[in-house]
Each structure stands twice: as C-alpha cells, then as structure tokens.
Specification:
Blueprint (H helix, E strand, L loop, with lengths): L1 H9 L1 H18 L1 H4 L37 H37 L1 H15 L3 H12 L3 H11 L2 H14 L3 H8 L4 H37 L11 H8 L8 H28 L1 H7 L1
Helix pairs in contact: 2-4, 2-12, 4-5, 4-7, 4-8, 4-10, 4-12, 6-7, 8-10, 9-10, 10-11, 10-12, 11-12, 12-13
Protein name: ABC transporter permease
C-alpha cells in the first residue's frame, strides 16, 4: 500500500488524476449536502440567470440557471452520481462478460474458442453506438437499462485481452503441474489463471470507465440515455446547445465537468498501466 502510494506521488499526472477522481467521488457521495437546490426544481422567473460573478447573476445560483430556471451547480453535483454509477456499473458488466467468455475460449479452445471469437468479430463489425441506439430505442431509456446495454455491447475488448493472457498462461509449468496432479479445471482457472490476468484486466477497466462516461453523455445528449428525475451531464448539454451564443454557461459547465472527469480517469488509468503492466515495467526499468 505504501509502495503504491509512493509510486502515485512520483507521477504528476497520476496524482492529478487520483485527486480529480477522488473529488468527483466525494461530490457524488455528498451530493445532498453540496447541492444548494433541488436539481429538478423549475423556477421560470429565474431562467437563464448568469453565474454569480457576472452582471445579473445571483448569489443563490453559483453557476447560473438553465432555460427552465434549474440550478446548474446542483444539477452538475447530482449528475456526477449518474456518471460514476453508469461508468463503473457498465464496466463491471462488460468486464464480467468479457472475462468469462475470454477465459472459456482460451482454456477450452477448439470449437468453443471458434464460436466465441466469431461472435466477438460479429459485434466488431457493427458500429457500437448504432447498436446501442437501436437497443435503447426498442427497450427504452433509463439508467439501469443504459448500464446493461453499454455493458452487453462492450465486452469484446475484455474477451480478447483475457483470451490472449490465458493462452499464454495455460502453457506455463505451474498450470501444467496443477493439471498433472489432478486439479479440476475450475480450481486451475480461479486459483492459478485468473489472479495472473487481473493486472491487465484492471488496467483495461480503468481506461474503459472514461469511455463509458463519454458514451453515457452522448446517448443522454441524444435523448436515449438518462431520463428525469435522474440528472445527466449529457442531458444538460442537450438542453443548453441552443443557448450557447446567448447563455454560454448552460452548456459550458456540464461540458467542463465531463472533460475534467474523463481526463482524471485517463490520467489515473495511465498510472495504473505503468504500475501493473509488466511490459511497461520492463520499458521503464
């Protein structure tokens, strides 16, 4: 633990990423305490008020209000919950599916491997965003639906990475020895193979959280992601796009929230790659 903390502090981008992610997590956890208004409370009389420091602004609305008079700061605070839940939840779903299919394909090989990999190739041939749009249009929008749809359509990268790792590991002496003494396949997979795959899995998961947050924002922007009463940064961007020229704050602050959060996750993911990826250790060492 101490060694990992020292390595993190030596990396400027890693430290910055960790600080950003920590702040976003704290904002999401303490959203009811940090929000100054109900994020869905409509106040037509206060619509399109500028931020507090600009002329015409009000101390009651730190970052101003949107076209319905809703407090932008409070909506950004509650939007952080949605971004983290969808980002982490979808990665857990896609990671679990990809890990199971990748291990199964590599360990059992033959027709099992062929079927799973051809399924993965078929999914790669279809634009992911188009597939998600079709499914969400049929099933309907919603946070948990979005988590499942993103997770179920983004497992291919996990399956390929895990499969490659397992193909190498299953030829190692310690796996062959376990097989020779009669260890069952389940024990070999969970005791000897999966622990050695986890570093690559964690690195890939960390990077995919950033991608998933952008996917969620994109789908919400198009009206097929998060719906009221949940608040989405992508939905806030959609609400503010027609006011960019006159009331820039409506779209700018949600966009900044997405950008800063994604950069924080990417910086932290880069640090995780440098620490956990053996190839990067050899390159740096």
């Amino acid at each position: 633990m101490k060694k990992g903390l020292r390595q993190l502090l030596r990396s400027k981008t890693g430290t910055l990423g960790a600080v950003i992610v920590l702040i976003v997590c704290l904002i999401a956890i303490f959203a009811p305490l940090l929000a100054t208004h109900d994020p869905n409370a409509v106040a037509p009389i206060d619509r399109l008020k500028p931020p507090a420091w600009l002329e015409g602004g009000s101390g009651d609305y730190l970052l101003g209000t949107d076209n319905l008079g809703r407090d932008i700061w409070s909506r950004i605070v509650y939007g952080s919950q949605v971004s983290l839940i969808v980002g982490i939840g979808a990665v857990l779903v896609s990671g679990a599916i990809g890990a199971v299919l990748g291990v199964t394909a590599a360990y059992y090989g033959r027709w099992v491997d062929a079927v799973i990999m051809r399924l993965a190739d078929s999914l790669l041939a279809i634009p992911t965003i188009l597939l998600m749009l079709v499914v969400l249009a049929v099933v309907g929008p919603g946070m948990w639906t979005l988590i499942f749809v993103i997770g179920a359509t983004n497992w291919v990268s996990y399956a390929r990475v895990v499969r490659g790792e397992v193909l190498s590991l299953k030829e190692r002496d310690f796996v062959k020895s376990a097989r020779m003494i009669g260890a069952r396949s389940g024990r070999i997979i969970f005791r000897h193979i999966l622990p050695n795959v986890m570093s690559s899995f964690i690195v890939l998961s960390g990077m995919n959280v950033a991608t998933t947050i952008i996917m969620e924002a994109s789908l919400s922007f198009l009206g097929l992601g998060i719906t009221t009463p949940d608040v989405s940064w992508g939905g806030m961007l959609s609400d503010g796009r027609q006011y960019v020229a006159t009331s820039w704050w409506v779209a700018t602050f949600p966009g900044m929230a997405i950008t800063i959060t994604v950069l924080g996750v990417i910086f932290l993911g880069d640090w995780l790659r440098d620490v956990l990826d053996p190839r990067m250790k050899l390159k740096n060492g």
